[in-house]
Each structure stands twice: as C-alpha cells, then as structure tokens.
Amino acid sequence: MSLLDVLTQYRKDPSLAAGPASLLPDAETLDQSDPLRHKRDEFLLPAQSVYLDGNSLGPMPVAARQRAQAVLDQQWGEDLICSWNKHSWIDLPQTVGDKIAPLLGAAPGQVICCDSVSINLFKVLSAALGLNPGRRKIVSQRDNFPTDLYVVQGLQQLLGDAQRELEVLPEEEIEGALDDQVAVLLLTQVNFRSGYAHDIARLTRAAQAHGALVIWDLAHSTGVMPLELDQWNVDFAVGCGYKYLNGGPGAPAFVYAALRHHAALRQPVAGWMGHQSPFEFSPEYTPAGDIRQFLAGTPPILSMSVLDAALDVYRDVDIRQVKQKALDLADYFAARMMEFPSLQSLELATPLAHIERGAQLAYVHPQAFAICQCLIAEGVIADFRAPNILRFGFSPLYLSFRDLDKALERFAVIMKEELYALPEFNVRKKVT
Ligand SMILES: Cc1ncc(COP(=O)(O)O)c(C=O)c1O
Ligand SMILES: Nc1c(O)cccc1C(=O)C[C@H](N)C(=O)O
C-alpha cells in the first residue's frame, strides 16, 4: 500500500488512523530506502530544527558557503576587476541560466539568471504583449501570488488602462475564459497558499489554440517539479533562485524565453548588459540577439556565484525522484498527522491527487498565526499565510521521514496543551 493509499484510507475512515495499529511504515524504514538520503550531507542545517520552509527560503548548501568565501577572498579580494575575465563573471548570468535549464526541460541558450521574479515578470509580460499586438486581455488568477498581479497593474498604468484589460479569475474559470481577445495567459504553476498545481501542458495548449501567449511563474516549481518547457511549447517563464534552488536570501531569479521569440521580442528594461556589444559603449541601444537581451544592469556577482554553487547539488539527482519524495513526505506527514488526536482541528486545504499538487501542504486553522510562531519556537520552522493558513514545505534534498516524526511530536504537544495561546505567540511580526 502506498503512502497516498494510507492517507486516502484514513480520510475515508478516520477511525483507522485513531486505531492502535498504524497503517504507515515506520520513518526509519522509509529513510533507509530513500534514494536521496545522502544529499542531506550537502547542506548546513541547525541540528535541532526541522526545516519545513525550504519553499520560501532554501537552506545553505556547503558548496554555496565555500563559493561565497572564495569569491570574496580570492576573486574580488585578490583579482579585483580582472575577475570579470579571469573568473568569467561576465558570463555568469548565462552560465547559471544554462545550469537551471535542465531543471526546466529547456535546451541551452533560453534561460538567463537576472533580477527578481517581479522585474522579470515585467520584462516578459511587456515582451509578450509586444508579440501579440491588437489583443487587449491579460488573463490571470485571483489568488495568484500578488506580485504577478501588481506587475500587470503597473504595466497597465504605464500603457494606459484602456489598452490592456486584466481579467483575474478563480482557478476553475480560467480555461473557459480563453478566447481570441486574450493576448497573454499569466499563471503561477503551484499556488503559494494552497499548493494546487496547474497542468502547464494543457493550459498552454488551450491558450495557444486561441492565439494567446503564455507566461508561467515557476517560483514554487523549479527544483522540485519535473518540467518540460520546450516540449510543452511554453513561450515565457520566470522563477526564483532562493526557494528550492537554495541560492540564498535575495538570490537572483531567472527568465526562460523560447528560442522562437528571440528575434522579434523587445523587453522594456533596456540596459547596457543586454546590448549586443556592451563594451562598445554605443549611444544607440541594439539588443543582443539571444537570451542576453533580458539583462539590464551589472549582475550581482556575489549572490549569483552562490546560486551557481548551490545548483551543483542537482548535478546527480533525477528531478522525478525529487518530486516523488516530496509527495511521499507530504503524504506521510498528512497521514501521520491524522494519528494524533490533538491535530484533528487542522483542516487540509491542498488537493490529494498527486497530479494537482506541488511540494507543500496547507492547513487551515483560525489560530494558524500563533500556532506557526509556537512551532518555530519549538524548532519546527513552518510558514503562516494570512488569513488562516499554516504551510509546510517538503523540500526533499535534506528532509527525512524521521524529521517529520520529530516535527509532528512537537506539533501534537503544542496543540494538546494549547501552548500557542500564550501571549508571546500572538505578537504580529513585520515578515510572516
Ligand atoms: C509565485 C511567486 N512569484 C513571485 C514571487 C516574488 O518573487 P521576487 O521577490 O523575486 O520578485 C514569489 C515569492 O516571493 C512567489 O511565491
Ligand atoms: N521572498 C520572501 C521574502 O523576501 C521574505 C519572506 C518571504 C518571502 C517569500 O518567498 C514568500 C513566498 N514567495 C511565498 O510563497 O509566500
């Protein structure tokens, strides 16, 4: 019986979970047969914590720390500006882009590392609208990550509201809203709150059948979801360096632009690094004919180098195994949770079907904020998303099934003894 089967049975008949004999295999057995268990040694993690927030900020790979030191001491420290050539700093956006590309199912030359997801969305959305003149509508999802919607609103303001119409729809209405007026379909694959995952291939086909272009935000996908952007004929995508890719706080993001668009597209943040020949210092802007045209200013070498090193963690892993382990961890967590009477007041808000999920689970509870603070105080680092969601991320390269047992034991005590009701756990923070 698979872990999902156990979870499904428990949900059908909760008395099974409450019974004396667990239907779940024990965590130690699951850890022993985990093909990714050796990857944990490549990360620096505090010994007492269980980190269930790698979907917001990945932990530090050993190689990232070493690279940061080398870039500071040997490259910047010793070789100064000569490092642009000597250590190939100038090529880093493309080098890192090409390292990310296999995780996206993208052939080389279509991915570049730069800026933030928000800035990259602005660039690709403008470019996509330029490639689809005469059409007014941008379709997106109401509970998309807000920055995606803000970028559209900012661009609307710039272009004049009358020219572009943003239609934000509930998830179930999106496909039906695609018609010949739609210029761009802009979606995030994995929803940051619920963990629901869209079918990129199907929605891309549906949008393109009406002549629309697609942009996918892969912030919660890259490094954990198997992706085939080339095969799915995706037009543009953006994604994040600091979540599953473990590139560190504020790590640069990336752009994917299908090769077929490189010649015709124009992106609006024209800057010298995106020029065909930056070091000719010409007063006229001629964009690079390739993916480099998405660059604007000088790349952040320190953080991009760290991301470059962090990506080496993926050198010997099969992304399908990563996704499978993420699902197994989540299924185990959800099923084991049902075995603790004190955890029954939390309601799962993530779909059960594997095909409809990313690598996180969302639980609804009116006291989610305080519970999350209390969990963190007990060394279980989870996430709260307003108004009432407790979010657990299952990043498979360093988490074990035994970690989940540890987390759930602490969680059960917190709920049983209502420790979260203590005033110190109800103090709002700037960053939640
Ligand atoms: C889906 C999604 N898109 C975009 C962002 C924002 O990315 P950035 O801060 O790099 O602009 C996030 C998270 O911060 C996110 O979860
Ligand atoms: N990017 C973040 C930050 O700078 C501070 C705190 C959290 C974040 C996040 O990544 C939020 C995240 N995208 C989310 O899914 O909620």
Automatic annotation (TrEMBL):
Its cofactor is pyridoxal 5'-phosphate. Keywords: Hydrolase, Pyridine nucleotide biosynthesis, Pyridoxal phosphate. It is an enzyme of class 3 (hydrolase). Pyridoxal 5'-phosphate binds at residues 118, 145-148, 188, 217, 220, 242, 272, 298. GO terms for molecular function: kynureninase activity. InterPro entries: Kynureninase (IPR010111), PyrdxlP-dep_Trfase (IPR015424), PyrdxlP-dep_Trfase_major (IPR015421), PyrdxlP-dep_Trfase_small (IPR015422). Its EC number is 3.7.1.3. The modification N6-(pyridoxal phosphate)lysine is found at residue 243. Pathway: Amino-acid degradation; L-kynurenine degradation; L-alanine and anthranilate from L-kynurenine: step 1/1; Cofactor biosynthesis; NAD(+) biosynthesis; quinolinate from L-kynurenine: step 2/3. It catalyses: 3-hydroxy-L-kynurenine + H2O = 3-hydroxyanthranilate + L-alanine + H(+); L-kynurenine + H2O = anthranilate + L-alanine + H(+). Catalyzes the cleavage of L-kynurenine (L-Kyn) and L-3-hydroxykynurenine (L-3OHKyn) into anthranilic acid (AA) and 3-hydroxyanthranilic acid (3-OHAA), respectively. Homodimer. Belongs to the kynureninase family. This is Kynureninase. The gene is kynU.
